[in-house]
Design goal:
Elements: H1 2-29, E1 32-42, E2 47-52, E3 55-60, E4 67-69, E5 72-73, E6 84-91, E7 97-105
Parallel strand pairs: 4-7
Antiparallel strand pairs: 1-2, 1-6, 2-3, 4-5, 6-7
Length: 107
């Protein structure tokens, strides 16, 4: 009986931990970056639209990720259209592109 309970505990722990690790591995594997100019910012939806290479890309910016503006810690509301921006993100297909780091430089 003790062996059965121990096996159940190990399996439960593995099931709880493996999906989180798999997601982190996927996120790191699919990490990309984009640089361009800010086209628009939607603070309530936490998105930034970036114009680069004659195309626009909208990226979701989760609460708590590092945002810098001219080298200083910043908030999403401090990003303005026309700013230069570099974003590291990953694809959550079929969901949105999610930022992991945002760096903004004013013009």
């Amino acid at each position: 009986m003790l062996k059965v309970m121990l096996c159940a505990l190990v399996i439960t722990a593995a099931v709880a931990v493996l999906p989180a690790r798999a997601e982190n591995l996927f996120n790191n594997f699919d990490s990309r970056s984009i640089s361009g100019s800010v086209v628009s910012v939607n603070v309530s939806n936490r998105t930034v639209t970036i114009g680069a290479n004659f195309d626009e890309t909208t990226i979701f910016v989760p609460d708590g990720i590092p945002i810098t503006r001219n080298g200083q810690s910043a908030d999403l509301s401090q990003i303005n259209p026309g700013d230069s921006i570099a974003v590291t993100y990953y694809n959550t297909s079929p969901g949105p592109l999610k930022a992991t780091k945002v760096d903004v430089q004013t013009k």
